Amino acid sequence: MDELSDLYAEVIMDHQRHPRNFGKLENFDREIQMTNSSCGDQISLQIKFENEKIKDLKFTGMGCAISMASASVMTEVMKGLSVKEAKHFCDEFLEMIREGKVPADDLKDAKVFSNIHKYPMRIKCATLAWHALQKAIE
Amino acid sequence: MDELSDLYAEVIMDHQRHPRNFGKLENFDREIQMTNSSCGDQISLQIKFENEKIKDLKFTGMGCAISMASASVMTEVMKGLSVKEAKHFCDEFLEMIREGKVPADDLKDAKVFSNIHKYPMRIKCATLAWHALQKAIE
Amino acid sequence: MKKDFPILSTVLPNGKKLVYLDNAATTQKPLSVIERISHFYKSENANVSRSAHYLGEQTTVSYNNARKAVAKFINADEDEVIFTSGTTESINMIAYGWGDPNVSEDDEIIVMTSEHHSDFVPWQQLAMRKKCKFKVVPLNIDGTINMVEFKKSITSKTKIVACARMTNSFGIINPVEEISKTVHENGAILVVDGAQSVPSMPTDVKNMDADFLSFSGHKMLGPMGIGVLYAKKDMLESLKPFLTGGGMIDEVKDESTTFACAPDRYEAGTPNVEGAIGLASAIEYLDEIGMENILEHERSLFEYAYSKLKSVDRVTLYGPKEIEKRAGIVTFNIKGIHPHDVAAVLDSNGIAIRSGHHCAQPILRALKVDFMATARASFYIYNDKSDVDALVDAIEDAKRRF
Amino acid sequence: MKKDFPILSTVLPNGKKLVYLDNAATTQKPLSVIERISHFYKSENANVSRSAHYLGEQTTVSYNNARKAVAKFINADEDEVIFTSGTTESINMIAYGWGDPNVSEDDEIIVMTSEHHSDFVPWQQLAMRKKCKFKVVPLNIDGTINMVEFKKSITSKTKIVACARMTNSFGIINPVEEISKTVHENGAILVVDGAQSVPSMPTDVKNMDADFLSFSGHKMLGPMGIGVLYAKKDMLESLKPFLTGGGMIDEVKDESTTFACAPDRYEAGTPNVEGAIGLASAIEYLDEIGMENILEHERSLFEYAYSKLKSVDRVTLYGPKEIEKRAGIVTFNIKGIHPHDVAAVLDSNGIAIRSGHHCAQPILRALKVDFMATARASFYIYNDKSDVDALVDAIEDAKRRF
Ligand SMILES: Cc1ncc(COP(=O)(O)O)c(C=O)c1O
Ligand SMILES: Cc1ncc(COP(=O)(O)O)c(C=O)c1O
Q1: Number of domains making up chain A
Q2: How far is ligand 2, taken at its centre, from the CA of residue C120, in Å?
Q3: H-run or E-run covering D307
Q4: Is the pLDDT of residue D166 over 60?
């Protein structure tokens, strides 16, 4: 395809069409709501912790393909990580998006967002869910 | 001389050096203070009326040569005029200054200000005293 | 006409030709305006009013002439034209400068649900400061003002009614003349947001009988950073100076300050002369075309786009169908595609539209618009039917991809 | 350097070459700034942040980069830089946005007698709104701040101290570092007016420990209509948004509005992107010369002018003699000639200076300056000794004529 597939990679389109961990938890320790004020994207994130680990997490929200796919990928990669690992993962992801830095660690599916730093107007879309997580575990 | 003599005509320089009717009246019916806010020029005008006529008038003030000479000339030409004549005279003067209109009536010494309309930044200087008079007799 | 606008020949890095359809956000500038600005800085620039030298005189004359040009353009008097930095500042100037000294706890302020945030939040905040009633007039299903509800909501306690002459969300032309009559019958003042209407149709402040009117230069071919507040002469008595400082004073003493006359008293600090003369140059360009013709042109493009899009599968069009209620704004959504993604696909086709809430969350919420966001294509003088065709093609591309 | 500034080759209608010495009022623009503006309108222009298309992206990136450039120039963080329309708006934004919510009747506000009206009237009006004490610090005979009196006037009740780093009337550099220490020891905040200092000397907000700093683009080679408010990070909590509207909100509901984060929350409405990028381009030009060098250059011209004028009959020079307290402003009067007439004669010689009260009536009144007005020649980067020579010659001409 064309240059748009840079932005809307297969994996992103897949997560957008079938978001993972979409919905509400019956039981959660922390809930964070966040909006991207310039474009109106919204996310609500619920987390259940156990032994300093992210035992489960789910999200609901409204937004573009990038922000929804990014939230979906985030929940997928974060499940089961320790809070410390999650923080580190977040930092790596945000540096990749904002500065185009190649991540030191394996970001798994989150790597498909590495092109976003070339689209400055979409950075906020790709990072919304991750900022919500950061706030939840800070 | 050069183009400056357009602005600072002999008559103007004479009135500036020797302002007529400068000072305070012992007895007056009306006193008006006015400032030109953009440049700070100030005038205080006192008038004594008699039978609908301007019997006497004096001014004090602080300002540039144009504004002081214009006040001096104004007091000289206005003394003895009826209020109606004075109003008319004022209108003619202001039209001459603001629009460059050749006055229908004889403005006497006040005609030396006819070049001022070519100096938009000095219009307020030349008209301050006349506005003060207008306010005093309106 | 496109050749007067250098930016319109832009080719994107992917080789696509730019089709600029984001005019309700900001318009492009003709060469004449760009060159007027350069000329100003190359041969006139000085501070205004207070510098009595050759350049200062040039600048002062140009600035005063710009004020005259604006006054003529909206049929106002010179003293009624206050230069601001834009519509948003103009409206805040009324809210603080007129609202604060004149509104009290028992009063009411009325706005329409379809107002732009800049004509909504300042009034809401004023109402909060004054602890007075803030009424938001409901809309009809097509986004037009529900006039029955409006007339019910206005009372003798109403002090201020704020209303856009044209909305930026759907491009609806509101019946301000009718609103104005009702407002004045009830003893309130009418504050008109002209940010969208002044660029797109004739404006006559006396005809519409607005007490205040605000608009922005950048939405009508002028530079950024300049706007206008028209204040009806009768209002100048009760409009308090809002920003204070140099240029708006008469005399400053330690204990008190006296202020200059209007319009100076409302223009604190060094004015944006560049902006004012740039706006005057824009007005010259618009006048040559004629504001009636501009409205007609926008409407013809709207009708063309509407007729093409109304039968396109998955496309929802917002706003009334009646052409006399509209100007050149087409607001739409595509089922299953978030407007940001629509905008991204359109952008990859060279087409610049806007997506999002358009600073108009209340109307989107009230009408329960999908995603609380829409795509919006807005036309201006330099657009033509081929731009609409390109838009429609790109919408098909978006549908294919999502 | 003069050749970078097209306007400086102006020849007046009477054949005289322009000598521009009104830089404290506004500065001229180098071709690079003028062309940056044209380029923006010819190939980048869009609305910022909210328009996610090719041009919108260009504009947003340029706007953000401009903010970074300003932050770096004054050693601030990006989030601490708020774009305004100029110094006057910046100061009003502090007075309304910080003053109104944080000052009460028992508090005190202190300003210097030498403040510009834009850094005097907003504080006086705030004090009047709050019915609190407004103290004006007396000056020494040379126009410098009487530091003994200042230290006596500040108390634990003092909330705000406002002071220019450089005055526009006499070009005096005030000891803000020392003032800052005293202010903070007393638990007050320091608001610095940088309108004159930022263009003429290095600025480091951390070093001078200002809580707020304001300046204008047009006085430092940038376009009109753009200014900066620096707000120290600690102050952002207590600085209320002042102008409300589009672009500064988080969510708007009928009953309430939540605001975005700094700096967006303080920039309501479409920002002046042209102004911001023009200012960034000006900063680039200034950085190439170096702010230390600019101060040194101004001082060398001041010293040259001072040494020539101090022995000229009928000429009175204002301000301190010590060069370390001054930059490139020479303020003077000629005995028996009103400064407006001085300016007129100088203008006929091609020399642009300013005459009048320079928006600084309090200092002129306090020092009992003749005419309550002065003539003022102010130098900038493109002036040289030949300009000073022309000034001195023209002063002789004025003396001959009056
Ligand atoms: C010291 C000082 N403060 C404030 C101002 C006001 O700046 P502006 O007119 O750009 O708002 C000026 C310039 O006029 C100034 O010299
Ligand atoms: C209807 C309406 N009102 C107000 C505004 C605010 O104008 P500005 O951003 O130029 O201040 C806009 C544009 O954004 C608008 O479309």
Answers
A1: 1
A2: 11
A3: helix D291-309
A4: yes
State yes or no: chains B and A have 3 or more CB pairs below 8 A.
Answer: no
Better-scored residue on pLDDT, A101 or A47:
A47
Residues in D touching A39 (Cβ below 8 Å): 50, 52
Quote the mean pLDDT of chain D: 96
Task: Give the chain C residue whose CA is nearest to the CA of D359.
Answer: C246
CB contact under 8 A, D121 and C253: no
Residue C306: both structure tokens together? 């509407």
Q: Taking 70 as the threshold, does the pLDDT of residue D292 lie above it?
A: yes
Q: Please report, for the domain that includes residue A129, its CATH number.
A: 3.90.1010.10
pLDDT digits (tens, 9 = 90+) for D223-259: 999 999 999 999 998 999 999 999 998 889 999 999 9
Using CA atoms, how far apart are residues D99 and D239, in angstroms rounded to an integer? 8
Same fold, D2-21+290-401 and D33-287: no
Indicate if the alpha-carbon torsion angle B107, B112, B117, B121 is positive or negative: negative
Please state, in angstroms and rounded to a whole number, the distance separating the CA atoms of residues D221 and D5: 10
Q: DSSP H helical segments within B1-138, as ranges? A: 4-7, 10-17, 65-78, 83-99, 123-137
D169 CB within 6 A, ligand 1: no
Residue A39 domain boundaries: 3-137
Tokens 């501009």 belong to residue: C294
Query: What pLDDT is attached to residue D163?
Result: 98
Q: State how far the Cα of D53 lies from the Cα of C353, in Å rounded to an integer.
A: 7
Task: Map out the domains of chain C as residue ranges.
Answer: 2-21+290-401, 33-287
Task: Reduce the secondary structure of C232-287 to three states and give it as a string.
Answer: CHHHCCCCCCCCCCCCCEEEECCCCEEECCCCHHHCCCCCCHHHHHHHHHHHHHHH
Contact B119 C57 (CB under 8 A): yes
**Of the partner residues D14, D338, D361, the one whose CB lies closest to the CB of residue B64:** D338
Residue type at B21 in one-letter notation: N
The pLDDT score that the predictor gives to residue A6 is 82
Q: Residue D292 corresponds to which amino acid?
A: E
CA of C170 from ligand 2 middle (Å) equals 14
Q: How many residues does chain A have?
A: 138
Q: What is the mean pLDDT of residues D180-194?
A: 98
Compute the average pLDDT of residues D13-24: 96
SS (H, E, C) C145-171: ECHHHHHHHCCCCEEEEEEECECCCCC
Chains C and B touch (3+ CB pairs under 8 A): yes
Interface contacts (A, D; CB < 8 Å): 23
ipTM of the complex: 0.94
- How far apart are the CA of B38 and the centre of ligand 1, in A? 15
User: Is the Cβ of A4 closer than 8 Å to some Cβ of chain D?
Assistant: no
Q: What does each C-alpha distance from C257 to C241, D125, D131 come to in angstroms?
A: 12, 8, 15
Would the pTM count as exceeding 0.90?
A: yes
The reply to whether residue D52 touches residue C87, judged by beta carbons under 8 angstroms, is: no
Contacts of C61 in chain B (CB under 8 A): 120
Q: Which atom number of ligand 1 is nearest to the Cα of residue C270? A: 9
- Joined tokens for residue D229: 């408010």
| pLDDT less than 70: residues of chain C | 49-51
Query: By three-state DSSP, how is residue D140 classified?
Result: coil
User: Using one digit for the tens of pLDDT, what is the confidence trace for B3-35?
Assistant: 788 889 999 999 999 999 999 999 999 999 998
- Longest CA–CA span in chain C (Å) reads 70
Q: What is the pLDDT of residue D379?
A: 98
DSSP D316: E
D33-287 is a CATH 3.40.640.10 domain: yes
> Quick one: pLDDT at residue D49?
67
CATH class of C2-21+290-401: alpha beta
Instruction: Tell me the two tokens of residue B6.
Output: 């357009």
Q: How far is the centre of ligand 1, averaged over its atoms, from the C-alpha of C261 (Å)?
A: 20
**8 Å CB contact of C361 and A40:** yes
